[in-house]
Amino acid sequence: MQVRNGKARGLALHLRRLEAANREAFGVGLDGERTRALVRHALGDTRDASVRVYVFEALGEPATMVTVKAPAEMATPQRLQSAHYQRPDAHIKHITTDQGHYRRHAQRNGFDDAVLVGPNGVVSESTLANIGFFDGAAVVWPDAPMLHGITMQLLERELAERGVPARRSTVRLQDIASLDGVFLCSARGIAAVTAVDHLRVPVESQGLSMLAEAYASVPWDSI
Predict the structure, then answer these.
(1) Is the torsion defined by CA of 187, 190, 191, 196 positive or negative?
(2) CA 91 to each of CA 41, 116, 124, 146: distance values in angstroms, whole numbers, following the listed order
(3) What confidence score (pLDDT) does residue 122 get?
(4) Are the C-beta atoms of residues 99 and 113 closer than 8 Å to each other?
(5) How confident is the model at residue 60 (pLDDT cuts 50, 70, 90)?
(6) Torsion region of 36: left, alpha or beta (phi above 0 gives left; psi -120 to 50 gives alpha)
(7) Domain boundaries defined on the chain
(8) pTM (2 decimals)?
(9) DSSP code, position 98
(10) Domain 78-216 in CATH: superfamily?
């Protein structure tokens, strides 16, 4: 998660997702207040940062590790290369996957990231972010195995409050040419997508501005 001035967007959602994944992976809950205290301790006097909380198997009970790095923003626009790969247990944010291999391969080929594609060309997510589409006045999220990212959840809430139509739908690689635009979203922000493989994708400026406005309205929570 991105921390600015000692605060983070969607902190309760981050903790809820971490607790659910911990319970599924290790069969025990997670003390949210202790996790927040560990993050505060790791931050120290640092006010702006990229923070990750790892929970991993250890004797007795799962252990928690917090890493603090420099703050980061989403690069925009981005060009994506398709990769036929599906993360195992895609609904859980975990590091036991090969997605980094496909990201590096895409970058060696001159792209910014890889978009992960399952059977029959069904699009799920990028290696680092959720992917979404513009279809007329609606926002379309992939109906495929993927991580339900925190920024995606926040955008879903904000779009609903603004009366912006949004839906889940199966999107295949060949469908992208008929859509009005593509974007990525993560805790680092929102990015326009201008190409998928050799397909040039139009930039839906109005839709991107609407998403940016919605995301900017999300309050920052004290850690």
Answers:
(1) positive
(2) 29, 14, 11, 5
(3) 98
(4) no
(5) confident
(6) alpha
(7) 2-69, 78-216
(8) 0.95
(9) S
(10) D-amino Acid Aminotransferase, subunit A, domain 2 (3.20.10.10)
